[in-house]
Amino acid sequence: MEEGQLSFFAENLDFQLAREEEISQWILKVIKNHGGNLSFINYIFCNDEYLLKINLEYLDHDTYTDIITFDYDEETIESDIFISVERVAENANELGNTFEEELHRVMIHGVLHLLGFGDKTPEEKLKMRALEEECLALLV
Q1: In this structure, which topology does domain 5-137 adopt according to CATH?
Q2: 41 Cβ contact partners less than 8 Å away, ≥ 6 residues apart
Q3: Residues 39-57: pLDDT tens digits?
């Protein structure tokens, strides 16, 4: 299987993902472990206002969120994942996590959606949280 492309960008803020190569290898491992076929994922790190505009324009939701995942293909993983760094920082603070821990959780949450896992029902939310924990354990 040919490995797909993971790319990291920042919009409307100065942000650089720490441990980029290690994080990339981790995400690729999670995708492989779940039988996914990666074409590309573009992670776009942004601020609250940038993500709110996307939420309004594409999803008609007038709310702040930490992540929006656009899934462009049903056969392979082709996606843009937008993450609000401000929301991640606030959530980390509220949950008692480090920023890095919360960022990794959000990043893999988007990947799990792309692999077909949902989080709409209480049962799905429990399964998603368990999968997040399982995936995070792979990143030491």
Answers
A1: Collagenase (Catalytic Domain) (3.40.390)
A2: 4, 5, 6, 7, 27, 77, 78, 79, 80, 81, 110, 111, 114
A3: 999 999 999 999 999 999 9
